Structures are given as C-alpha cells and as structure tokens.
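User: quick one, sequence for these tokens?
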C-alpha cells in the first residue's frame, strides 16, 4: 500500500473513531469507557490511537502499526440527550469489532442503526418522572398533599422542558423557566392548601431538574484522573443548578413565601421505615432512570439497587445504636450499590454505571442544596443583623451538599475500580 492509500485509510478510520467517541460523550458516558471503547476498535484494525477528550470536542490521532504515518481529526460533540441504551450498544459494538474484526463499512452501518433507534415514548417518560419526583418528595417527609402537588408541578414543568428543548431553546433558559413554573405550582401549598408539609411541596417541586448524572459523571471522572472532563461536567452542572436557583428565587420573591421551617417526622419503627423508604426510592430511581433511555431490562435492577441503597442509608442514619451522619451513611450506601451493580451488569452485559447512577439519584442531597439556595436568598433580603447567621448556614449546607455527593459517588465507584477488568468487559458478549 502506497503512502497516499495509507493516509486515506487512516483518515477514514480516524473520522469514524472521532464520531464514535463524540457520540459516547454526548450521551453521557464516563470518560474512561469512551477511551477504552475507542482504543479497542483501533486495535481491531492493528492501529494505535491517542484520544483527547475535551469539554466540547474529541481529538483522535491514529497511527499505523509501524507509527510511520498518522492522521488527526477533531470532532465537535453533537447535541444529544443522556442515552444509556446507546452507551450499552456502542460498547457492545466495540467488542464485536475487536472479536470479529468488522470492516469499516460494517461499523458505520451498525453505528448508524444504533444512533437512530427511537427513544422511549415522551409520555411514558413524563408520567414516570412525575411519579419519581412525587416519591422523592416522600423521601423528604412530604405528606400525600405535597406528593400530589409535586406530581402536578413535575408533570407540567417536565412537559414544558420537553417542548422547549424540542424547539432548540438554550438549556440555561429552559432550566430557569421550568424551575419557575414548577416552584410556582409548589408554592400553592403555602398560599392555598396549607397541607402541613408546605416546605416539601416547594422544595422538591423542581428537584427533577437537578443534573444528577452529569454531577456523578464529573466526580467519577475526577476520581479516575480525567480531571479536565470532570471539571467541565461539574461546571456545566453547577450552571444548571444556578438556573434552578434563579427560578426558585423568582417564585419566592413574587409569592412572598418564607420557607424557613423544615418538616421532620420521627418514625419509631426503624426497620419498617427503612423498607418503606427503599420502596419509594425504587420508584424514584426508576423514574429518573427512564430519562436516560436505558434498556427496559435494566429498569428492574436499577429499582432494586435504589431500594437497597436508600434503605441502608436510612437505617444507618436513624438506628439508635448507629445514628451515622448523612455523609458517612451515603458513602456506605453508595458502596453497597456499587458492589451490587458490578455482578448485575455481568448478568445482562450492561455497563455497571448504567445501574449505579440512576440508583444513586434518590440519594442526591436536594434538600441541602435547596436550603443553601434559601440561605443565599435570605442573605440578600434580610437585615444586616441576620446576615452572619445565614452566611454560616449557607456554607454549612453547601459543604454538606458537596460532601454527600462526593461520598456517595466515591463509595459507588470503588467497586467499579476494584473490579476494573470485569466492569469494562461486561459489554462483551
């Protein structure tokens, strides 16, 4: 093969690998899996591949076997929503390429078929997310009145989000508007219904917007030494959280509500309460998982992991002989989810994080984040005599939010890193 033919061959294959890697990044795949999958396909051709994953682009440099020729291609990350089904099937494709030495034409054909598969019905997603957020409200001790209000607030807010994103609105504007609409509906408990847990109606009405998977992916990337990608994902997630806070602030200012008290219910039977908490977490985990378009066979396992993880955390925090703090309990619960996710992934050839991340979402410290936002609003609105008190509360709640998130993700990914080979080979059929 002459030099021109070698160059053209490298060019065609580099373009495919860049498209492949950029698609994985777009659908929310963790950076190490993107790297392993892409390099695996290059090895199936007997080529060397260097991959640079940046926040908005993927840079692929492909070398021939003797490293005498190379070709570099930069691909902008396409705009695609979270999609765990594409994650699974493209991971399967990388192993098929490695084991069966598929041609480039075959890979393009299979790649396009996977990427163009229809997503779950938007109405199914809408209804399940509404129930998930209502159960999330229950996990924070909201009563049935609050759960009903949160269900309506989520249904309307998430429907609005679907429509605005379909019309290519800016993500930040969508989050501000949806947060405002949902919290306005949540505030009706303060204004009209007075159901008894008004704080939960307002505080959880917009939690379906919390970008849990990007936050978890960002923490996992940093732990796994993909620091640049991790910081970029966390920065983007923080911007979305700020937009959620802006929508909430508008509601509080317009309605004049003062959500200073927080519901806390003491349940004497810890074991029964732990099981009940787990069952509500299972519904919440399933509903939040459906946003990421997983294969249906993964939903039941996700529900089980969410149930077990949240039950363990509740028991560790409330059993009189233990009474662990939320950071420690969340870390242990995340560890349990991670230990169960690896063998579960091996049974259906599905990435372990596809189970683990949605199962962690019911443990996202949404109320700590809400309290931090509330404290920030009070710092601005209240007289100077109260400023230091709310500054202290703001840093306390913000720190707890960060530590709980980091603890539960670190606990969850430890088994994935310990069983590294098994975790990254589960998609090999």
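Assistant:
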């Amino acid at each position: 093969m002459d030099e021109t033919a070698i160059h053209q061959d490298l060019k065609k294959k580099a373009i495919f690998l860049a498209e492949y890697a950029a698609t994985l990044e777009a659908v929310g795949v963790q950076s190490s899996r993107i790297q392993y999958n892409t390099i695996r396909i290059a090895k199936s051709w007997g080529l060397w591949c260097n991959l640079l994953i940046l926040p908005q682009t993927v840079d692929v440099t492909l070398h021939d076997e003797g490293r005498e020729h190379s070709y570099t291609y930069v691909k902008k990350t396409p705009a695609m929503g979270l999609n765990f089904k594409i994650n699974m099937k493209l991971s399967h494709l990388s192993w098929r390429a490695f084991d069966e030495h598929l041609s480039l034409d075959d890979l393009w054909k299979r790649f396009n078929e996977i990427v163009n598969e229809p997503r779950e019905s938007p109405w199914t997603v809408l209804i399940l997310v509404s129930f998930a957020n209502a159960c999330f409200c229950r996990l924070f001790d909201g009563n049935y009145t609050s759960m009903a209000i949160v269900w309506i607030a989520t249904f309307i807010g998430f429907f609005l989000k679907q429509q605005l994103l379909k019309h290519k609105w800016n993500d930040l504007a969508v989050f501000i508007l949806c947060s405002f609409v949902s919290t306005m509906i949540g505030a009706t408990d303060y204004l009209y219904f007075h159901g008894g847990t008004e704080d939960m109606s307002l505080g959880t009405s917009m939690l379906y917007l919390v970008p849990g998977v990007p936050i978890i992916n960002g923490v996992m990337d940093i732990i796994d030494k993909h620091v640049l990608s991790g910081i970029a994902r966390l920065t983007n997630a923080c911007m979305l959280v700020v937009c959620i806070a802006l929508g909430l602030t508008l509601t509080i200012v317009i309605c004049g509500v003062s959500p200073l008290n927080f519901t806390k219910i003491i349940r004497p039977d810890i074991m029964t309460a732990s099981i009940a908490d787990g069952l509500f977490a299972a519904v919440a985990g399933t509903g939040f998982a459906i946003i990421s378009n997983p294969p249906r066979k993964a939903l039941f396992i996700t529900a089980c992991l969410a149930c077990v993880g949240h039950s363990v955390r509740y028991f560790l925090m409330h059993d009189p002989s233990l009474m662990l703090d939320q950071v420690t309990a969340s870390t242990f619960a995340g560890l349990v989810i991670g230990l169960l996710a690896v063998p579960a992934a091996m049974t259906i050839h599905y990435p372990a994080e596809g189970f683990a991340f949605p199962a962690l979402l019911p443990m996202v410290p949404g109320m700590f984040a809400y309290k931090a936002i509330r404290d920030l609003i009070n710092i601005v609105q209240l007289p100077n005599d109260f400023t230091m008190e709310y500054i202290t509360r703001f840093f306390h709640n913000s720190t707890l939010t960060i530590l709980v998130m980091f603890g539960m993700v670190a606990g969850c990914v430890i088994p994935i890193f310990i069983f590294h080979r098994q975790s990254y080979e589960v998609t090999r059929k």
